[in-house]
């Protein structure tokens, strides 16, 4: 009979009871039972744990690893002064990450199971004397533990309680309840004061419509008299409206709720420079209902008609052509687009190049400026004797030496080239004569700045002049 019992136990033990977990090692999730070595068996009811023994069982897990442990039996040497807290001699230390560690000894079986998540560390220790049968317990390990699956929270984030065993809903603003199933009606608490009305257009959002004299998020602030803060600037005069607002009567040239927009209407402080004329082309019909937009639309609505020689939005840019190279005109003289300059030469001189120059676009003349060249130079007829030539040259050199030099320096640009041009038949190649005469076709919008200034500093070198056309200008170099 006894033999048969032992037989059965050996078979059971061989299948599940005490498989390889006798003293420490990794806890097997497939198992469910744990006991110390030497725990009594059917065959040896008096068995006790050995002395000086340390068995350590572990299991490495995380927040998704649920561990549960429950004693079936415990008889372990109790600690000094019969303390089952200090467990000074023999003990079982059960430690789970989320729970912490607990020591067990004595003979009172704890009724509560140990339940936690994370890694597991179980340590059985015996000292060198006083041994008992030890402990036996069942345990379970679940590795896919997740209290948020399925997610119980209706309007919020699912988290865990402090012991990490249960779900805990962190509700979105505007919701409450264990599963965030309750919508908070903010307006129910009458947050708007002083007769303001409350509106909750969406979850977790409400606004207060205050009575005219009140303001603030909850209509808790009483407004002072609307004009007390002098809201009208630029000399505007403030008055109170029926709905406790202010109204500004603005001075001329200002507009806006507080008269803060100046230069209105658009031509009020004439934006057109250089004597341009301003026209208000505001289009109030295009203005939107938005007051400020209306001001801006109107403000932009002006047009400048510019005097000859000026262009741009505000007549602030010079337009037309500059001096094409006429020596005795100011360099900055400008001509309107379309102006025609007609060139001609003194008797005895021949015009080389186009007679008419047209200002075709800003800064651009149709052709290069022509030049006047002595008929003699061209024809090669040197009628002067070498003596006469020499005397003329000498005389000229003596009398106008300084002037010529200065002029030569000033006007050498286009002229130099001509002076230097070698003359095939003239023995004295320096004796070239130039003459140019310009007359300007009369156009109403010619850009002569003013007729008196038409002549440059070198007025002396012009033999005669009239307001609109120039008679011949010649110089012997
Ligand atoms: C045990 O009790 C004795 C006497 O009451 C005391 O002197 C001793 O400090 C106690 N030991 C502990 C560990 O509490
Ligand atoms: C310790 O012993 C007391 C009774 O002596 C018992 O009520 C208590 O549950 C025991 N505690 C543990 C952790 O075993
Ligand atoms: C029990 O085990 C835990 C975890 O390893 C350890 O921190 C603690 O010190 C142990 N307690 C004792 C009394 O050995
Ligand atoms: C501006 O208006 C005045 C008066 O109507 C006129 O004489 C003048 O020519 C105008 N100037 C321009 C640049 O349009
Ligand atoms: C130059 O312009 C004037 C006036 O437009 C014209 O009478 C004359 O024929 C033109 N001369 C030449 C060479 O095109
Ligand atoms: C140059 O002068 C001669 C007479 O001196 C005259 O016959 C001729 O036509 C002139 N040529 C030009 C291009 O003016």
TrEMBL record:
Transmembrane segments: 387-411
Pfam families cross-referenced by the UniProt entry: CUB (PF00431), EGF (PF00008), Sushi (PF00084)
UniProtKB keywords: Disulfide bond, EGF-like domain, Membrane, Repeat, Signal, Sushi, Transmembrane, Transmembrane helix
Signal peptide: 1-20
Cystine bridges: 148-158, 171-180, 210-219, 250-259, 306-315, 345-372
Domain CUB: residue ranges: 23-142
Repeat keyword on record: yes
All residue ranges annotated as the EGF-like domain in the record: 144-181, 183-220, 223-260, 263-316
Domain Sushi: residue ranges: 319-374
Name of the protein this chain belongs to: Uncharacterized protein
């Amino acid at each position: 009979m006894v033999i048969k019992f032992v037989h059965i136990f050996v078979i059971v033990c061989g299948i599940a009871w005490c498989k390889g977990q006798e003293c420490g090692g990794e806890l097997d999730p497939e198992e469910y039972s744990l006991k110390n070595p030497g725990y009594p068996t059917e065959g040896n009811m008096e068995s006790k744990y050995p002395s000086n023994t340390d068995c350590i069982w572990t299991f490495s897990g995380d927040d998704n690893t649920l561990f549960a442990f429950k004693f079936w039996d415990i008889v372990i040497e109790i600690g000094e002064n019969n303390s089952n807290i200090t467990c000074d001699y023999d003990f079982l230390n059960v430690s789970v990450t989320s729970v912490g560690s607990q020591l067990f000894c004595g003979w009172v079986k704890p009724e509560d199971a140990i339940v936690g998540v994370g890694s597991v560390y179980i340590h059985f220790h015996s000292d060198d004397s006083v041994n008992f049968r030890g402990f036996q317990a069942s345990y379970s390990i679940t590795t896919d533990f997740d209290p948020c699956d399925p997610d119980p929270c209706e309007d919020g984030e699912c988290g865990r309680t402090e012991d990490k065993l249960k779900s805990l809903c962190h509700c979105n603003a505007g919701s409450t309840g264990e599963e965030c199933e309750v919508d908070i009606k903010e307006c129910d608490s009458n947050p708007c004061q002083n007769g303001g009305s409350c509106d909750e257009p969406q979850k977790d959002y409400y606004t207060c419509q205050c009575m005219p004299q009140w303001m603030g998020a909850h209509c808790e602030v009483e407004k002072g008299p609307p004009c007390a803060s002098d809201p009208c600037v630029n000399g505007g005069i403030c008055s109170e409206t029926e709905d406790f607002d202010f109204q500004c009567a603005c001075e001329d040239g200002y507009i806006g709720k507080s008269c803060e927009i100046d230069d209105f209407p658009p031509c009020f402080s004439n934006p057109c420079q250089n004597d341009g004329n301003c026209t208000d082309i505001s289009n109030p019909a295009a203005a939107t209902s938005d007051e400020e937009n209306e001001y801006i639309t109107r403000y932009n609505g002006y047009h400048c008609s510019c005097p000859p020689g000026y262009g741009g939005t505000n007549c602030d840019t010079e337009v037309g052509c500059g001096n094409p190279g006429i020596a005795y005109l100011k360099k900055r003289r400008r001509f309107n687009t379309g102006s025609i300059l007609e060139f001609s030469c003194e008797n005895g001189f021949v015009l080389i190049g186009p007679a008419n120059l047209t200002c075709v676009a800003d800064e651009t003349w149709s052709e290069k400026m022509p030049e006047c060249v002595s008929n003699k130079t061209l024809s090669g007829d040197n009628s002067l004797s070498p003596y006469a030539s020499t005397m003329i040259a000498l005389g000229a050199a003596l009398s106008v030496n300084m002037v010529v030099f200065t002029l030569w320096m000033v006007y050498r640009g286009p002229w130099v080239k001509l002076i230097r041009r070698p003359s095939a038949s003239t023995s004295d190649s320096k004796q070239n004569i130039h003459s140019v005469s310009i007359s300007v076709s009369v156009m109403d919008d010619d850009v002569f700045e003013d007729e008196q200034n038409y002549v440059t500093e070198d007025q002396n070198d012009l033999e005669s002049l009239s307001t609109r056309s120039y008679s011949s200008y010649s110089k012997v170099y």
